[in-house]
């Protein structure tokens, strides 16, 4: 615990914010009025002069796109802050109740998609050049995907032993901690998205995996590290993490275990955002072709929501998935996200990782 002056000030500020939220009588921040054209939006954004963007990605991955935005729109400074999606939700709930919102652009997806709906302000994204196919649940913009995959250590797993199906992962040779899995079960999303799989089969599979005594990690990001170090032979990961690790010389590769989920990530402007025009401008920019090309270099651009290998182009994530013949499903509706929020706890109970 910090006992210095800055620590006491931060603690007092948080206490005041929580008190304000608790006594706010249910009031929340409202959506701001935004200009009706892109030209007017740029003008208002330049008057605001800055925009605070929160995301779970390392800042280094986003920096090239930030620099291009600031070059295109001089006078608007981007302040990037690395905050995990669940923490963004918690922070915004408190700030909106207290009407003291600090974030202009927030990031959602997966487990945070459903709660983010109540936090997002109304934005007519089509007016700012966003394609309808990239607008989700009215107020969210699809900007990148981080597909969940199974990865393996190429020094530990012989080519003939690389799993090619979910059933292959249940082989006894992976028992005793030689396989790692994300304890929160989001890597199993596809079982609830693919009509041919379903919840009943998913729970039966999860029970069999638990019998292998896998190495459980608290989230899918941390599940990658044991694979790279060789602590485990195979495990759950994200396509972006596997490719980034390979770039650094790690002995990892994507296993051709299909199907999987696309794991779409969305940006939105929270209600009460202090710089709403700059927020809308930054979000629309990140959805543009120029920004997507830059984001693709750090494995963070869009891919087709469902399996489509007809034109992998220069998108490394898409090429890597297509190279191993992966099939994937996206979460096409808000109702599916809501259904998933009830699916994960059931799988966790089979894993024995449910903490309520």
Textual characterization of the structure:
With 356 residues, this protein is α/β, with parallel strands linked by helices. The chain has 13 helices and 13 strands. It has helices spanning 5-22, 38-48, 59-72, 85-98, 113-116, 189-193, 199-211, 225-229, 239-247, 276-286, 289-297, 316-323, 334-351; strands spanning 50-55, 77-82, 106-108, 135-136, 140-145, 148-153, 179-182, 215-217, 234-238, 252-254, 260-261, 264-268, 328-329. Strands 8-7-9-6-10 form a five-stranded mixed beta sheet. The chain has a four-stranded antiparallel beta sheet with strand order 3-12-5-4. A two-stranded parallel sheet has the order 1-2. Strand 4 and strand 5 form a beta hairpin. It starts with a helix and ends in a 5-residue tail after the last helix.
Fold blueprint:
Layout (H helix, E strand, L loop, with lengths): L4 H18 L15 H11 L1 E6 L3 H14 L4 E6 L2 H14 L7 E3 L4 H4 L18 E2 L3 E6 L2 E6 L25 E4 L6 H5 L5 H13 L3 E3 L7 H5 L4 E5 H9 L4 E3 L5 E2 L2 E5 L7 H11 L2 H9 L18 H8 L4 E2 L4 H18 L5
Parallel strand pairs: 1-2, 7-8, 7-9, 11-13
Antiparallel strand pairs: 3-12, 4-5, 5-12, 6-9, 6-10
